[in-house]
Predict the structure of Glycosyltransferase 2-like domain-containing protein.
Amino acid sequence: MHNSWNLLNKLQQKIYITVKFKFWVSHFIALLWMAFSVIISFPWIHDLAKIVTYPIAIAIISGISYIPGYLNAFLIISLLFDKQPKFKNENPTEPVTILIAAFNEEKRIYNTLKYIKNQDYHGKITILVIDNASNDQTVAEVNRAIDELQLNIKLLHEKRRGKFYALNYGLQWAKTNFVITLDADTILHSSAVRNLIARIESSPNDVAAVAGSILVRNSRENLWTKIQEWDYFLGIASIKRLQGLYQGTLVAQGAFSIYRIKDLKEIGGWPNAIGEDIVVTWRLLEKKRKIYFEPLAVAFTDVPASLIQFIRQRSRWARGMIEGLQAIKPWEQPQLYTKYLTGVNLIMPFLDITYTLFWIPGLILALFGHYWIVGPMTLLVLPLTLISFGVLYLYQKRFVFRPLNLKIRNNTIGFICFILFYQIIMSPVSTYGYIQEFLKMERKWK
């Protein structure tokens, strides 16, 4: 795989390959894989149809095998084609504003601000910390940072509870062309701001935002955080790269992203949504703007250390996706790639529900020798998953971690658990989020 990647990179340097060509070739190969899967699965369909009828059997197998296999194949080919363009200027000096919405962040906000001080960026950085009605010592910690860190920090107050209120209030005070959003529990690699600004300045004017790369800081805390480290390092990063290649990263996440202020103001800032960063990104895409991803702009965040916290976070993400689909329909997106990328999200509830209701029970049945749902055919998805993770692992190691002088932690147990068990937990959690949104249950920031 290593030699194949080098060969592909050399070919791409000699021959310009358009995004459209990459898009359709990746589709063609992915559809061939799915057709192959369908043909060899006829006996599986026939056996399952004896129990649940042919239409239901096809629907179940589509949800747990055909569609996931197609999506994985499309991802792999696209990642092999991906080649991040070089910065036009590696050391920009454009003034920038960083917005940090903070609610009860007394334990983390000072450290977050300290890492901003350590940035190798030579342009002026203005930091706006918006206290969102905290009832702990968040304000005191920000004032301590103002006194000790010698940063250009302004403390603002937004009493209306809600992250979108805080961000929009901060946006009113921003006087620069670009604004970076940063979560109060997220710390930055020393070159994160520089690389993020270098990417958006190197991009066409219709690029409204660039999402940074989020990695896990507290992976050594317990097994659960070790598992999530691989999700961020491989799963989330691979999806971001895929979407960035097709100029439509679907979430310029609030944890660490940069936006052109004029584009944000044109759409009215952040919306009243539990997934405000998802909806604001899709509204920018709807305005024919493009959203990129910069893997070298790295930030580190603390992931949920308990299953309960994880369920709250990921069900909130699932709700945010549904809010985005409700606000901007995929077919209303003006660009082909964005129609496709947001359209994929339309089938995600089907995949998660199918996995929850059929794969997990089918796995239990298979343990007792009943291979009606889960059997040898379902293993066809596994090699594609491992290949895609292998491709991304090599990319992250060579083109991200090595230039940033970072080392990949030894986390074998976490990787094994991630491969074997992560989706078994993720799909039911996402399904729970869909149910919450359907029932319009109370929204919570945290």
